[in-house]
Recover the amino acids of this structure.
């Protein structure tokens, strides 16, 4: 079957199943079809966290993007983080105001880009941050009957209010990939493996999904599950929230040592994830990746691209270029070591980017 035929069938399926208000397929289905098309053609869409809010040496410059500065196009996918919304703060944990986030997300959706939201909420039990793993009672405390349950429901409400307030060109809540409770196979966030039982972790997902979708009617969300690299198939699936919730099987995997080792790590995960995606009828994504500072000149075309092209990956999201920490960047900028190679990477697959 040709890819165009597949896309047409997907769109027709979207049209006749479910979330249509009039004769148009809803934007969630259009985004899903676009992701599926990228996966089918092994042309993963390129993404960058906070790309439109700040870059390596600038902050809040309308229209600017480190990726666009380099190659002339915006990344197809832009990531934003909700951390801090739960407290009712005006800005997130990295200083991005939620009003700016909303404006940039809406702008990106109008130019045909895709939005994804991650969430590093504070610790509702200890009042520390998302990385406060000093107690293994946190998840238990926010589930029904727990001492922090009602406060946590307020946190979910604030996150839902924000997600609902970001509108697409038709004035509807924007279709966005939502990726909470990530890297759960590690134990560095309060929802991590060593901090709660499997049942508690899955109940946290049920609570989140029930509230957002069933109570609030946020049918615009596309749900991504994203364990960290290094988990085998059993560990990856052990705490899986279930096919009824998840749309995207993701992976968060960073390079800390040699490139060959990173390629091995990615292949070890995608080898089994590709089978899972087919069996469960889900999309595949590299939901977070990167090599801090990218010290290798040909990293994009020699390390990353060869592995990505082997699999049916819908999108890949590089982590952020902090404006206030000079060595904390995951995509190049003019003059950095891998800048030319990134241009080549872009030119080899311009459909991964948007104008
Ligand atoms: C981490 C780092 C932090 C940041 C956090 C949430 O990986 O980039 O500086 O606060 O993500 O965005």
């Amino acid at each position: 079957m040709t890819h165009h035929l597949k896309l047409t069938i997907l769109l027709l399926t979207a049209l006749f199943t479910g979330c249509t208000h009039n004769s148009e397929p809803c934007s969630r289905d259009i985004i899903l079809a676009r992701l599926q098309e990228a996966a089918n053609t092994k042309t993963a869409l390129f993404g960058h966290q906070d790309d439109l809010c700040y870059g390596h040496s600038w902050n809040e410059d309308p229209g600017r993007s480190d990726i666009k500065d380099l190659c002339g196009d915006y990344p197809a996918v832009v990531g934003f983080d909700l951390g801090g919304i739960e407290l009712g703060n005006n800005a997130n944990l990295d200083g991005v105001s939620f009003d700016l986030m909303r404006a940039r997300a809406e702008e990106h959706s109008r130019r045909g880009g895709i939005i994804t939201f991650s969430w590093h909420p504070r610790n509702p039990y200890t009042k520390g941050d998302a990385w406060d793993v000093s107690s293994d009672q946190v998840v238990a405390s926010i589930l029904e009957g727990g001492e922090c349950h009602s406060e946590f429901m307020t946190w979910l409400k604030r996150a839902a209010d924000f997600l609902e307030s970001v509108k697409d060109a038709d004035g509807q809540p924007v279709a966005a990939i939502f990726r909470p409770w990530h890297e759960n196979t590690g134990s560095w966030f309060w929802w991590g493996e060593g901090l709660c039982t499997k049942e508690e972790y899955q109940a946290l997902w049920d609570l989140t999904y029930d509230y957002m979708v069933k109570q609030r009617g946020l049918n615009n969300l596309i749900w991504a599950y994203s364990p960290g690299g290094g988990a085998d198939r059993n560990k990856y699936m052990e705490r899986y929230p279930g096919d009824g919730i998840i749309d995207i099987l993701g992976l968060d995997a960073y390079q800390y040592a040699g490139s060959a080792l990173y390629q091995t790590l990615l292949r070890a995960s995608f080898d089994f994830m590709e089978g899972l995606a087919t069996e469960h009828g889900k999309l595949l994504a590299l939901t977070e990746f990167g090599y801090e500072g990218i010290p290798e000149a040909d990293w994009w075309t020699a390390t990353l691209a060869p592995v990505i092209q082997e699999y049916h990956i819908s999108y890949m999201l590089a982590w952020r270029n902090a404006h206030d920490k000079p060595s904390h960047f995951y995509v190049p900028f003019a003059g950095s070591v891998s800048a030319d190679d990134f241009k080549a990477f872009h030119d080899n697959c311009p459909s991964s980017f948007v104008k």
